Backbone:
């Protein structure tokens, strides 16, 4: 089961399948069915609630009280209130909120783009892991943004994304930072992680006209299958909107 509605599944299905399989594998390695998981920036529980429905304990750390309120309501509706803990905070306050070496997996989705220091933030997350713990890292892809701006006819902005240190097209760019696959891999290595797999996320979903997906019979299902098939192919990583790294703590 995907964690979102069918239309939104185009954006989350690839990551969900990787995360679900990784948690299942980790639980098997430890010989225990219930894992302790931290979801930083988890907001309203798009991943936390489905993970809790698998039977795992999830602590969601997010700076927004409104998002955490929505998370608690969503967890209650799903019947997993006892497995979901909502904590207001961020990666800077994480050491005060989660005991070091106490969790089996960390979800870090859409966080490194907005923090002041990605390396420091990732280091704080990794510090919460037990040995062999899993990290699911999802971040905006610089090269995918180059393609998107160019296809929209904004050629100067496309070049700016390509050349700017933080992968932005200008002061009006709402994304504070983007990464290449190499940059994410280096961040992971510096934090003591071993990258297990890399997937391209939203390779086609953001390029295909929404009206086509919504009105053409079978188009959404076919596009979803195409996304899943292309996600593992390195040739498509460069054009994906996001990159997903699954890594483990040595």
Residues:
């Amino acid at each position: 089961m995907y964690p979102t509605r069918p239309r939104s599944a185009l954006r989350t299905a690839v990551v969900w399948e990787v995360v679900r399989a990784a948690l299942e594998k980790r639980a098997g390695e430890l010989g225990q069915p219930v894992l302790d998981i931290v979801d930083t920036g988890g907001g309203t529980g798009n991943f936390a609630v489905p993970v809790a429905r698998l039977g795992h304990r999830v602590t969601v750390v997010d700076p927004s009280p409104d998002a955490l309120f929505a998370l608690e309501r969503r967890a209650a509706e799903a019947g997993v209130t006892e497995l979901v803990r909502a904590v207001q905070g961020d990666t800077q306050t994480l050491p005060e909120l989660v005991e070091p070496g106490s969790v089996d997996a960390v979800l870090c989705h859409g966080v490194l783009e907005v923090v002041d220091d990605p390396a420091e933030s990732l280091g704080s997350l990794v510090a919460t892991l037990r040995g062999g713990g899993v990290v699911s890292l999802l971040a905006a892809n610089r090269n995918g943004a180059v393609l998107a701006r160019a296809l929209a006819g904004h050629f100067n902005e496309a070049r700016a994304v390509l050349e700017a240190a933080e992968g932005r097209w200008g002061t009006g760019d709402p994304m504070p930072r983007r990464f290449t696959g190499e940059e994410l891999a280096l961040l992971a290595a510096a934090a003591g992680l071993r990258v297990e797999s890399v997937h391209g996320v939203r390779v086609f979903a953001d390029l295909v006209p929404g009206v086509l997906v919504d009105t053409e019979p079978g188009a959404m299902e076919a596009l979803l299958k195409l996304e899943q098939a292309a996600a593992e192919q390195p040739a498509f990583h460069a054009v994906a909107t996001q990159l997903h790294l699954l890594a483990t703590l040595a």
Notes: The radius of gyration is 18 Å.
